[in-house]
Design a protein that fits this description.
This protein is mainly beta and 127 residues long. The chain is 0% helix and 48% strand. The strands form two sheets. Strands 2, 4, 5, 6, 9, 10 and 11 form a seven-stranded mixed beta sheet that branches. A four-stranded antiparallel beta sheet has the order 1-3-8-7, with no helix packed on it.
Length: 127
């Protein structure tokens, strides 16, 4: 098991940028693939993007492609979500999730594939 803590959320204006961090406990974080999810009020939890344990493969949903970037620093046991050109519709609680995997280049897109979750960080984008 790994414990995850998100940080970096806040209130910004449309067009601004934010960088979320997902800090993990334990030195074995490099064997976990990570996903970023978000949940807007009255909406279901949805995938934002995911990154493989090797950081060689990433995936983004269409709504954030070209604006959001996921990266990881396994030495710092942290995964980042850089969010640029934020829109009001990006307002949500953002969660990172991790899944132990032996596949270097695999990412995972489904909520059910991640057993480890952080507590979430609120991102609010005003128009």
């Amino acid at each position: 098991q790994v414990q995850l803590v998100e940080s970096g959320g806040g209130l910004v204006q449309a067009g601004d940028s934010l960088r979320l961090s997902c800090a993990a406990s334990g030195r074995t974080f490099s064997i976990y693939a990570v996903g970023w999810f978000r949940q807007a009020p009255a909406k279901e939890l949805e995938l934002v993007g995911a990154i493989s344990r090797s950081a060689g493969t990433t995936y983004y949903v269409d709504s954030v492609k070209g604006r959001f970037t996921i990266s990881r620093n396994n030495a710092k046991i942290t995964v980042y979500l850089q969010m640029n050109s934020l829109k009001p519709e990006d307002t949500a609680v953002y969660y990172c999730a991790a899944r132990l995997t032996y596949a270097l280049g695999s990412y995972y897109r489904d909520v059910s594939e991640y057993p480890n979750w952080g507590q979430g960080t609120q991102v609010t984008v005003s128009s």
